[in-house]
Amino acid sequence: MTNIWGAELNGLAQKEWETLREFADAQHFKRMFRAYLRLSLTLRHIVDQHRRFPAEAKEQIIELIDRIRPQIPLKHALKVIGIGRSTYQLWLQQLKYKCMGSPTHLCVKRYPHQASPDEVKTMQSWLTSEALAHWPIYSIAMLALRRKAVLLAPSTWYRYAKLLGIQRQRPSHRRKKRKLGIRAERPDAIWHADVTILDTSTVRHYIYLVVDNFSRKVLSWKVSQKLRATIRVQTLEDAHQQFLSLGRSSNISLMVDGGPENTTIEGFINDSGMDIQKLVAQRDIQFSNSMVEAHNRILKYGYLYRQKINTERQLQKVMTEAVREFNSIRPHIALNGATPDEVYLSGTIPNDQHAKALAKAKKQRVVRNRKELCNRCIINTLLLMFLIRNAFF
User: pTM for the complete prediction?
Assistant: First the structure.
């Protein structure tokens, strides 16, 4: 029995050895093995560098697939890479119609859904404008959309800003994002009051703000070299007068912090005749006064720190223009592109009010781009004309 099993094992070993020797002698299997190895090493190199397939790697992958196709079927190569045939065909077309005259490096005529050359130039001029350097890209995009200058969604602006290599100015340090704070359901439901400090070359100034939670509107503000409760009361009186001028009558929650300027405002609340409830942030309620603190950061980093301010008069002038622009001109991302003034007066946050204009502009863009001629199209046209001329003449 042992001899029989030994003979069978010997026969199996001999058979496997013959198979290995045939594989070693077959040039086809050698080339296939090297192709798989090359594919594996290239993919590992790309993934180690980028952790994903970036645009720069597409050409490298397409070139690799073309080199190994005689040894590895396309279906198997795509399976190893982890992409579908449709993605492969898309990459192939993008490389075939590559055009350096477009920020996307795609022929405008072949890919007409991209932004037209004129739209790209307009976006570039708006994104690099010194007058809008303190605005976020979203606000710039919505203002251009409102003024019918460029009918493109804000997400497209972000993409082209990256493609054009435009770096927006950012504060040198930023606070960590916090959880969503308290939110009102109507204007004048929640007011926020706070004081922030601005040091000039010689004097410390205190900036008092009162902000509406729902619309983000700066209802009133004051600048002073002193921190006093009487100045805080003045800002509340100004906001109250604006409230009365609109004929509104409703209860208001006034959120403040524990600062000394907020300790004696109960007198104003009693004299106003309104149903105002004073709430100290993180004491009476669990929420912080983060909304008005966000306004402080916008005013400082977006407006005040960008200018040289030496006197209170200069500060008053800059604050007047900053509050006017913030309330009336600059679209707000939390308000779906509306301004705080518009939302405060209407009492509603608009939905996608530009959907029809964007859809219409998209159709017009496709028609216009299909009439464009990129550098590759011009060269091909001239080459075709040259060949026709030589053929007949």
Answer: 0.68
